[in-house]
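re: ur question from yesterday

yeah so i grabbed the chain u mentioned. its 345 aa long if i counted rite. heres the sequnce exactly as i have it in my notes:
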Amino acid sequence: MLMANFLKTNFAWPALCSRGLGLGLELGLGLCLGLGVVQGALAQELGKYPEQPIRLIVPFAPGGGVDTAARLVAKQMQGKLGVTVVVENRPGGNGTIGSKAVQSANPDAYTLLFSAATHILAKEVMTSVPYDPISDFLPVARVGEAALLMVISPNLKEKKLNDVIVSAKLNREKWNAAIPALGAPSHVATLYLAKKSNLSISMVPYKGTAPALVDVAGGHSQILLDSIISLLPMAKTGKVHPVVVTSLKRSPLAPDIPTADESGLPGFQFMSWYAIWAPKGTAPERVQYLNTVANESVTELVKSGIFAQNGIEGVNESVAKFTQYINSELSLSHDLLKEAGFKPE
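ran it thru and got these structure tokens back, copy pasting raw so excuse formatting
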């Protein structure tokens, strides 16, 4: 049924054929026959897919925001695809190990990448990347976005955003920002916050959210921005102090935490986002089909409230819109990194 709806929606042969007949009998019949052949070829190509489990590789460790989103989407998609969608974690190399596994895979749409903005920034933040994150992959679908949460060490007297900014400007040597991964949304969001608040702050890289969070809780680093789903549990227990969320509206997961917008940075918004990519060379029909399945799955995850329970806002985009979004995000992040004087490591 899903396949039939996909073909009907994307290649409406009867309607196109009817319009074609208005061009004249000979031309109209030719158009009808041509469209029939195209639709038949598409049906034949897609009719073979999928016939086996699909691997959805997450280039990060289990338990983080990307992994959580991947598992929710995979479960919903497999019900529509009729095959198992296996989430496979391949952490390491700041996301490059898992991404390389997808880039090297057979481009048959049975091995896909589920990642975040980190993926497109690989060459912006690292000197050695074994692939091109843009040209070696095909955008399939952007499925969701999530606000970040800013937390600080609990022993600090400053509790509000304005107080943190003022203190960090006056006592720069006493403030460090923990960065869970270079090029990750947390990294770019910290740069964006520094730019909007005219703040110069030292940034300390960590190998993941967990060690960064431990150091902020212990006072070794003072500031951390990361996905709300990752930081909120420790914020609720008081081991770190929540300051603001980076969405324009308060998060339903933590309605008592103010936004940066209402805390002295008007218009401030920064969202992490999650998406699916396929290896270069994957048949465009399969990419389009997966986009349709992903969008329908996201719609259901939003309606059921499952996305909201995990701090995720659903996104429904065409492949073309997602491609445009990647280009705009890459440009913004490139400028922020350049302004900060960041050099790839």
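noticed a couple things. The chain is about 45% helix and 20% strand. also Residues 2-47 form one domain.
anyway ttyl
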